[in-house]
């Protein structure tokens, strides 16, 4: 289930999530929690086998993990946004298996999610250079990302 699919143009007025504080083309997909998961631990699992290359607290996301993966012969960085930073127990350069737990989602409207609702922002950045932009101002800017839903949604 996603409220904000890849590439959607979000404005403060049209956003499916209110109140909204971002504007631009969405560079990832937002995967929502299910009813009843608001106060439970929701695990986030690696969508591919790869190396943990990033683990930090970032404005707009809260906790973020970045994993380097190979997708159909192409190197990408998978961004997992709005995680509880402390729950990311792996260290940088640790090898993750596909399906391995990375951490848990941050609590809604807390510093863990930088005040966002509880959900996962999943982004696939092309190449090997970390890019944490959640939105880009022009549509052509989306060419630096891949729609994760081509690979992970509904699976
Ligand atoms: Zn998002």
UniProtKB/TrEMBL annotation:
Domain M23ase beta-sheet core: 25-127
Pfam families membership: Peptidase_M23 (PF01551)
Highest taxon in the source lineage: Bacteria
CDD domains (UniProt xref): M23_peptidase
Listed InterPro entries: Dup_hybrid_motif, M23ase_b-sheet_dom
Protein name listed in UniProt: M23ase beta-sheet core domain-containing protein
């Amino acid at each position: 289930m996603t409220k904000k699919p890849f590439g959607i143009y979000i404005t403060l007025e049209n956003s499916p999530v209110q109140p909204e504080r971002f504007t631009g083309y969405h560079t990832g997909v937002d995967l929502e929690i299910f009813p009843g998961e608001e106060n439970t631990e929701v695990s986030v699992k690696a969508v591919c086998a790869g190396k943990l290359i990033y683990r930090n607290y970032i404005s707009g996301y809260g906790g973020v993990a970045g994993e380097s993966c190979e997708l159909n012969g192409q190197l990408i960085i998978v961004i997992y946004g709005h995680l509880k930073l402390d729950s990311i127990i792996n260290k940088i350069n640790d090898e993750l298996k596909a399906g391995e737990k990375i951490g848990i989602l941050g609590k809604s409207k807390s510093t863990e999610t930088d005040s966002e609702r509880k959900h996962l922002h999943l982004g696939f950045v092309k190449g090997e250079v970390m890019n944490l932009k959640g939105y880009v101002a022009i549509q052509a800017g989306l060419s630096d990302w891949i729609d994760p839903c081509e690979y992970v949604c509904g699976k």
